[in-house]
Amino acid sequence: MPAIDPFTKFKPISLSRNKRRTKLPSTRTVFIVIILFCGLVTSKTVLMNQYNYLKGLKYWHSGDLELSRMEFNKVLNRTPGDAKAVDGLGLIEMKAGNLDKAKTLYDQSIQMGLTFSHKFDHQKTGQAFIDMGKYPEAELELQHALELQPGNAEIYVSLGTVERALDQAPKAIKYYETALHLDPKNKNAQAQLDEAHSERDRGSIYYIYDRNGVPLALQWSKNGTRGYPMGKEFAHIIGYVDQSETNNHGSVGLESVYQKYFPGNKLYLTLDSRIQRVISKAMGWQKGAIVVLDPHTGEILGSISQPTYTPEKVHNQWSAYTYNKNTPLKNRAFEGLYEPGSIIKIVTSAAAVEKNLNMAAIFPLYCKGYIYIDNQIFYDNEKHKAVRSLEEAFDTSCNVAYGRLGIALGEDTLFEFDNRFGFNSVPKTMNIPVAQGTSPKLGLTRYELAESATGLGNNFRLTPLNAALIASAIADDGVIMSPYVVQKLTNITGTTLEENKPVVYKNAISRSTSQFLTTMMVNDVERGIGVKARVKGIKVAGKTGTSGSRNPNFHAWFICFFPAENPKIAMAILAENGGTGKDVAAPIAKKVIEGMMEFTDFSADSKKK
């Protein structure tokens, strides 16, 4: 048997260089690996970009524009030239109000190849700007949306709405017609097309209305000037806008307060144009003011100040208006401050009843037309002779009786009840300036207490609005509702942007006290000093007042509410330097009530609760 050589079958591995080389992967394998690697990197980049898009939009919706900007810039740092990120930066500039910058960025994004994305839906953001009443922003957004979706009929409808708001009816018509071409059954487009035709034919757009939808202010499409169909009657509420480039006198009233919303949005007032006509006619050429309101809501239904002015003529007649000694530009109804006179006897009576004042210590009394208080003569309007009760003192408006009541009540109580009825404060629900009424402060002499109780004195002042609120307190069971003139502000499509609701201003007195005062005020008109305000077929609860000086003439007051059993209206009338309340203001009230009865049902179908 031959010897076995162990190395014959198992030879040592050769150390030759060629035989040591490992076989390399093929080119195809390398290519696949590179593709997989790039895919992983790209996928990660895409995912990170998507994450930043979402965060950027989240911050944009919340209003944190700087954080939103950071997120979109992260995308651009990672992927320069990213169209969506540039589009996102445009959204930020749009929301910041930088429309020119937004337009530039939107144009860049289109050049970069931007396509429609549900995340960046400019149709929705454009509609959101319409809902907010911001039409230049909405226009730019929707035009950008149209670049991305040129066949979308709803974008054309929205653009038509925007152009109507911007007083561009011809443009709006073209957009609506295009929308109907794309979608012939679009009822919204057809309805708005009809509106646009009406505005084009009329040559103007309305933007302020009364409570019943009667237009009160418009802008002429031809030159952008403002017009006021009932200018003189509403002048002190609506105000004016001086649109001249030279010697511009600015704007006042609601025109000033809501200037940024006009003319695209619509402002609805609480005022009734029918009531405005009635009170304007009743006032005639008499200088003064009338305020009419709903005592249960605080809505001001009518308010005039006389003399008035023509809003469209303010610029050309500026000197004539400003140097007129009768100050026609002044809103006497809300800003005029006058001595209240005897209408304040309602407040003094309320104090006496609420504080359970001992009437036996005051009445009966004999009024000889004056009384000495601290060696000073305190005058009355006439000799009332025997006055046996508070009711008789109210009927005759006896100053001597109320002077004694004031001394008995004391300064703390008088001041407290003046405040309860709205003195020394201003309601925060008014959208235009209102002056604050003032009542005498503490530290009064006995003579000054007597004056205060009768509504007299240099430190005692109120506005006609405040006077109307005193009447409304009695009409509404002792509660004063906060007054307001703006019902709501809507955008061009009717979406509410701002709205006022009834809120309590003061809880002045108890229900039982208001019922007692109602009886006295009805008697004042039926048989007392306010008899010239009596109207057949309706119970009026009222109180006259006379204040100021004989030179040049007294201020005549009358405040009231009606029907007394179921109050619907509270009112204050001031005839500045017109005479006495019983002879001048009360007859004006009669004219107003009779005028309102022509279009309002004042039947006492339900008793005052």
Record the SSE blueprint.
Layout: H1 6-9, H2 17-20, H3 27-62, H4 65-78, H5 83-95, H6 99-111, H7 122-131, H8 135-148, H9 153-165, H10 169-182, H11 187-202, E1 204-209, E2 215-220, E3 226-227, H12 231-238, E4 240-241, E5 251-252, H13 253-257, E6 266-269, H14 273-283, E7 288-293, E8 300-306, H15 318-322, H16 332-335, H17 345-354, E9 365-367, E10 370-373, E11 376-379, E12 385-387, H18 390-396, H19 399-409, H20 411-420, H21 446-453, H22 464-475, E13 479-481, E14 486-490, E15 496-499, E16 504-507, H23 511-526, E17 541-547, E18 555-562, E19 569-575, H24 581-596
Parallel strand pairs: 1-6
Antiparallel strand pairs: 1-2, 2-3, 4-5, 6-14, 7-8, 7-19, 9-12, 10-11, 13-16, 14-15, 17-18, 18-19
